Amino acid sequence: MLLTVVADYGSGDLAFAEVRQRLATLLPTAEVVTVPVPAFDTISAGFCVAQLAFGEGPADRIIYANVAPRQDRDEPRAGNAGERLAAARLDSGVLVVGVNSGASLSFLAAEGVPIRAVDVADHGSQFRSRDVFPAALADLATGSLNPLGDVLPVGPPPKQAVAYTDGYGNIKTTWDSAPAPAGTQVRVRVGDRESSATVSDGVFEVPAGAMSFAPGSSGWNGRVFYELLSRGGSAARIFGNPPAGTPVEIM
């Protein structure tokens, strides 16, 4: 079993190691890998979850998403309560288990995947992803906690916005169609920064030092998302390292 943990603990953070140990106790044969996203960034988490869930891979895999900013309610919370745990089983057999926070599960829901409640406490520890949720995940993985509960309301993901920034500084967006014919020079505004870019059919179809806006390496169910790539540089740095959700305007 391949088990991928998408969380905002921080690359190399102690939290990843503690969650890994807990999962090793409950699912000792699972191969666990980790994908860090920025703190409280449910959009990046949701984008990664969908890319992994819909992408090619073994049917016997789980994506465990935990970005829980506890922003669903502003008033004080007793018992370290927060957003509740949810899950989805895709037709492919892939199991997604994650906190229903922000856009963490929005990209799945937008594709018609029902997001269902998991019957587990939403409180009991400041570190629920280590102390509370893994046992429910293991029960779902082994089939001892089924069926899932009621379908939960999940908001839509942002349109024409930053979705995720990779390690090269390429900005993956939620644009899924060309804003202009290939070869067109456009001005791109991301937040309060602007730069020129060439709309192209491939991210590297520009000379060194130039910016492209083209179908990138991410997408699912027949959709391919566009990304901003500065050939030999960092699009993220040029645009001021915009957080996920920042609008991407083509002018």
In short:
This protein is of the alpha/beta class and 251 residues long. It contains 6 helices and 13 strands.
Task: Describe this structure as you would to a colleague.
By secondary structure, the chain is of the alpha/beta class. The protein contains six helices and 13 strands. The chain has helices at residues 14-26, 42-54, 106-110, 128-131, 133-142, 235-238; strands at residues 2-7, 31-36, 61-66, 85-89, 95-99, 116-117, 162-165, 171-173, 185-190, 193-199, 211-220, 223-230, 248-250. The strands form two sheets. It has a seven-stranded mixed β-sheet with strand order 7-8-12-11-10-9-13. Strands 2-1-3-5-4-6 form a six-stranded mixed β-sheet, sandwiched between helices. It is elongated. The termini are far apart. 42% of the residues are buried. The model is unreliable at 76-81 (pLDDT under 50).
